[in-house]
Amino acid sequence: MLSVFFRRRLSVAARSESGPGLAMSIHGYSAPICLLSHPRMTVALPPPSVRLPPIRRIHEHSIEALENLVAYLHAIYNPPVRGINRVGPKAKEKAAKQAEDDEDNGLLAHLRSDEFERAYAVRWLTSLLSHASFLVPAEDGEDCEGFDAKADSLVQHAAALLAICAGSAAAGKVTRRFQFGSPRLDSPVEVQLTDIPLSVDGDEATVGAHTWGSAYLLAEMLLQEPARFGLSDDAVARGLRVLELGAGTGLVSLATAKYLLARFDHPTPLSTACAPTIVATDYHPVVLENLRRNILANLDQGASSRLSLSALALDWSLYSEDADTQDRATLTPVLDQSFDLIFGADIVYELVHARWVRDTVAALLRKPTSTGQRSNGTSAPRFHLLMPLRPTHVLESQAVEEVFPRATSATTMDSLARLENPMRLCILDMEGITCEDGNARSNVEVEYVHYMVGWT
Fold first, then answer.
1. Which residue from 35, 62, 138, 435 has the least number of CB within 10 angstroms?
2. How far is CA 429 from CA 228, 303, 417, in A?
3. Looking at residue 428, what is its pLDDT?
């Protein structure tokens, strides 16, 4: 875990004598020293201008040493999303043991926002990439192929981190890299996203400007169990249509798209007569603009020939019972066709949202053509909703289970209601998920719930 301490006016020469918990002062500039805490030791983590070796001497360092330096910069400039590490009994015990060693890392954010240190890191990474061809094995007997593989890995990590540091120069922007493994793939899927500052426009907050834990968990779950989430090879081969509500930064949609692209490139590739369509939607213009940028940053031009991924504006209220049907005519034609899968991660912030989401899903989720398709999990249309159980949003969580009744309770509806509405959206399955919040000292856990909704 990382923590930061400040001390004033200490000289650089004092670093080796005074131990950790310092702040370096160079010509009156006081820089924070971060501490990398372990159960039996605490290692000083100074700012880039102090920690990184001079640019002119980069080539003198080994691949391993340079990898450690890149990892050090990664710890500063690529902060993780909190509340995404699923836990079991062993993980809880581990978190309890580490609690006493985890300090508040609030001052690390101060170091991360320091423009001087960020600029220094950018210059150093740029120089590392330009000097990569001058790196040589540390030992004469080192395997050349092994060295080349290490050098390539170093270049890839440094280049990705440079994109994060340089792309985050604007105040409040944070770029993160996410990796998701899948039993259906030989290598992990990687998505790089930029979060932008939260803002309030009138009564609307741009909460979709950040990547939240629910989006990460949903993306992780659907790649670990693609068939369970409707991404079976058979379903994709039929020409899958996927919709994401409240896509925000686009993590779920991009993870889905990159998984499908990886399956197309697999040694036993997918065969499909119709390219999959993925539509990532949100409401706020600022969020949509950032969503489109994230899509462009992750998919090359060649991807468009194998699948379609687009970002569109969608107002859920247009599908409510009291909405003017003429307003729906302004919706893009892409939304005229129904979808096989609909995803939503942490999208219910107000009581009315639950009803709007239900009406939108009812309008856009494909209706099964037979009774058997309603229960066939690999091909039946499904809406997957994952949301945190926030103490401040208890009523909103209850509203979801009110608008989407349990399938068992739906079967008890009176016969007249069944005649008037033969198909109804119900919760077919639900599961609770517990995650660490990322701060072992507080030993706080974040609870999520995953709803699988379908027609009954």
1. 138
2. 12, 34, 23
3. 96
Q: Provide the terminal-to-terminal Cα distance of the chain, rounded to the nearest Å.
A: 48
Q: Which of 223, 64, 232 has the alpha carbon at shortest distance from 153?
A: 64
What span, in angstroms and rounded, lies between the C-alpha atoms of 111 and 31? 8
Of the candidates 293, 291, 209, 302, the residue with the CA atom closest to the CA atom of residue 244: 291
List C-alpha distances in Å: 61 to 128, 159, 368, 435: 11, 18, 62, 39
Specify the range with the lowest mean pLDDT, choosing from 65-69, 176-180, 307-311, 433-437. 433-437
- Block residue for tokens 């150093």: 124
Place of tokens 């040493």: 65
Query: How crowded is the C-beta side of 400, counted as CA atoms within 13 Å?
Result: 25
66 φ, ψ to 5°? Answer: -70, -35
pLDDT tens digits, residue range 14-47? 333 333 333 343 333 344 455 444 333 344 467 8
Residues 405, 426 contacting (CB under 8 angstroms): yes
Cα–Cα distances in angstroms (integers) from residue 44 to residues 51, 67, 145, 146, 253, in the given order: 10, 18, 34, 31, 39
CA dist 245 and 345 (Å) reads 8
Residue found under tokens 């779920």: 252
Per residue in 282-341, pLDDT tens?
A: 999 999 999 999 999 999 877 878 899 999 999 999 998 877 766 666 667 788 899 999
E strand or H helix at 258: helix 251-264
**Exposed / middle / buried, residue 286 (Cβ in 10 Å: 0-12, 13-18, 19+):** middle
Q: Taking the C-alpha atoms of 13, 17, 21 and 27 in order, what is their torsion angle to the nearest 10 degrees?
A: -10
Distance CA 141, CA 134 (A): 18
For the whole model, what pTM was predicted? 0.68
CA gap 425, 342 in Å, rounded: 13
Bridge partners of residue 5, in order along the sequence: 33
Question: Which three-class secondary structure state does DSSP give residue 245?
Answer: strand
Q: Which residues contact 41 (CB under 8 A, 6 or more apart)?
A: none
Q: Which residues of 289-322 are buried (b: 16+ CB within 10 A; e: fewer)?
A: ebbebbbebbbeeebeeebebbbbebbbebbeee
Residue closest to 175 by CA, chosen among 311, 74, 281, 262: 74
| Among 32, 36, 31, 39, CA closest to 3 | 36
Q: What tokens were used for 184? A: 């259906």
